[in-house]
Amino acid sequence: LAQATGSLLSEIPAPPRPPKKPPCHGPRQVSGGQANGGTPARRYTLTLCIWHLTIAAMVFEKSLTAMVKGIRANRGKENEYIQTCIQEIQKEVTSKNLSTKSMAVLKLAYLSMMGYDMSWATFSVVEVMSHNRFGIKRPGYLASAMCFTDTTDVGLLTINLFKKDFGSKSQYESGMAISCLSSICTPQISRDILTDLLAMLSSSRAYLRKKTVLCLFRVFVKDPPALKTCFPKL
Fold first, then answer.
1. pLDDT at 2
2. pTM for this prediction
């Protein structure tokens, strides 16, 4: 609970600051914008209302835990409840808030294990994978490893994401990218990412070297000609 609360608080934007009162130098004239309701005080009130609505939307957003509890509470009507959840998720994946979109992708990954299709949200998965924060991008990598296939068109968009995360300072981000690559690798992805993957064999971290070796095995299974290219360095 403390971890979830801390994650939520980190996403809440700072409240707007009240406008400064201008110094009074005798009677002042009201401009046309202020006469129409555009005074700093009214603008501040409107901004503050939007801020409160943003927080309310984040607080009452249905999490994965809440969705699972709802499925268990609707025995006999699970399909109807899940269809309602999917409709909510379809709205959440269009949100500009990537934290909300990340949670939506995580819920989709759970529903995909129950047999529901999430191929319609593959581009949203790639968007979540592109985030800089580890906690937000992780559901994207999980969902892509579970649901991307050889025929997934947006799979090629992950190549630059893999290359970026291979060079991350965090070994866990790099390891997450390597694990995902081993699950969704295709011959096309292999040809573009093989050089960067081979460079990981010389990493000073044993954790990454082990993952790279295992990933290369999966790459060779999907793209056998890659073995001839890599054999001298193995």
1. 42
2. 0.72
